[in-house]
Write a structure and sequence with these properties.
The protein is built from 11 helices and 4 strands. The protein is mainly alpha-helical. It has a two-stranded antiparallel ribbon with strand order 1-2. Strands 3-4 form a two-stranded antiparallel ribbon. It is elongated and about 65 Å long.
Length: about 280
Amino acid sequence: MAEAVEKTCYRHPDRVTGLSCSECGRPICTECMTMAPVGIRCPEHSGRPQGVQRVTHGVQRAAFEGAGAKVTKLLIGVNVAAYVAELAQGGGVYGVNSTIYEKGVLWAPFVANGDYWRLVTAAFLHYGPFHLLLNMLGLYWFGSLLEQRIGSGRFLLIYVVSGLAGSAGALVLDPLKPTVGASGAIFGILGAGLVLERQRDYVFGGSALGIIVANLVLTFAWPNISIGGHIGGLIGGAASTLALSRFGRGHAVYGRAGLYGIAGIVAVGIVSIAVAYWKAKGYA
């Protein structure tokens, strides 16, 4: 005999409910529902930007809420400024002849000699204006959406850890290939979006998986792209977002991150550094 499956609120997985949104059909609890002339609506379809959650938890989450994707814009500014500084140092159109590039590029022998800052700095350098433009467009399109969904603080944590994971992945697959670019961190944004959409929070309009597949196809088809950096960043972003949701026991957006959630993201970063050290140490 088949057993009935209890439905839980898509924003609060620990709450069993018999209610559902009349627009999208997602199950919602009484805290998340909004009464409308056409029935019960979830926050996304209630006509209010953030629904009931904005009223009840706005003060508590003020420090972590995004407002106009400020961190995304700041990150874009830092990337552009780094490239302009390379040009100012006479680095050429690709920036490779500048001191900034020499001190920031990711390369296993440098990391093995103790230059661990390169795991971060490489994510802010680019090979020329076209490389920079493509990555900054991706960061703006996807980063803005994710930041405004999960808040600036959580977004920044995921971005930095994804960048570390991308650097680790690049060292694993191409330790002797000098690597720069923000694409590892951007793939982390896509990985975070995929986890959110699996939790029925359609930050990219339900297209996260398709976007990831399309970009992976380009990764393998286009020459001179860091496959390890992209895959590592993707894994780092997804793992960090899973940590925020306490691996399915909460919601990465609407649940409280708590100590365990933040510690989980930090742990992903530490593992990334450890993997990078393990791979690079043989090239000292």
